[in-house]
Amino acid sequence: MSFVIFMLMAAIFNTSETGNPQESLLHQREEMVRLQIQNRGISDTKILNAFKTVPREAFVPVGYRRYSYADQPIPIGEGQTISQPYIVAFMTEVLGVGPDEKVLEIGTGSGYQAAILAELDVEVYSIEVNEILAQRARITLENLGYKNIHLKTGDGYAGWPENAPYDAILVTCSPTSIPPLLKEQLAEGGRMIIPVGQQNSVQYLYLLEKHHGKIIKKNVMPVRFVPMTDGKGKPY
């Protein structure tokens, strides 16, 4: 175990001197941002502030909340996970969203990534294929007061054409190839960040940009994500 992870885990299991749980969670959140995100090269101030603002514990099942700010993915039920904080931050920074842009997220999951995006003053359209997760995310995001997140239960492979085109698309699950309809729904000058590859094999995170109607694809880094599936759980 690295020194950084050891110190983070120590923070998770210790309470603040005052014994106030909210102060302890706030301290853990600030340490997560400093140790896991900022120290790994994420420098965008708005993104760092978003991670300091969004209470990650609200998106984690009760049985796992002690690990809310750990440097790892966390199970959220239905065979899905909430991604490692650094990966969420990295994908957000690479996507480079700006104020008032329209962003499509494929794979709402817990709703955490949608909340991070919403803090960047964009309109978020997020699709989740699993009805149970979709309902949980909807309740969590409504309880936190987000008004700029629009949710849909459905198959993300087809995107959300009614609201296209999108300035940016962020995909949190891995198909074996890039869905053609998502490329079509990307606006001119738009960007897409998406993991692609077979399960139990190497997957790669790709950044796509649309220029003059053509897609330019860049391999960003190797990753491991849950599969993109249809409404019956069959992987794409």
Description:
With 236 residues, this protein is an alpha/beta fold. It folds into 2 domains: 3-72, no CATH class; 80-223, 3-Layer(aba) Sandwich (Rossmann fold), CATH 3.40.50. It contains 7 helices and 9 strands. The protein has a 7-stranded mixed β-sheet. Strand 4, helix 6 (131-143) and strand 5 form a beta-alpha-beta unit. The radius of gyration is 17 Å and the shape is globular.
- Mean pLDDT rating: 91
- Range of strand content: 25-35%
How much helix, percentage-wise, in residues?
25-40%
Structural class, from helix and strand content? Answer: alpha/beta
- Provide the gyration radius in Å: 17 Å
Give me the number of helical elements. 7
SS elements, strand count: 9
Distance between the termini: 35 Å
Q: Under CATH, the topology of the largest domain is which?
A: Rossmann fold
The major sheet is characterized as: 7 strands, mixed
Shape: globular
- Main sheet: strand order: 5-4-3-6-7-8-9
Task: Give the number of domains.
Answer: 2
How does CATH name the architecture of the largest domain? 3-Layer(aba) Sandwich
Low-confidence stretches: 1-18
CATH class descriptor of the largest domain: Alpha Beta
Compressed to H and E, one letter per element, the order equals HHHEEHEHEHEEHEEE
CATH homologous superfamily of the largest domain, by name? Vaccinia Virus protein VP39
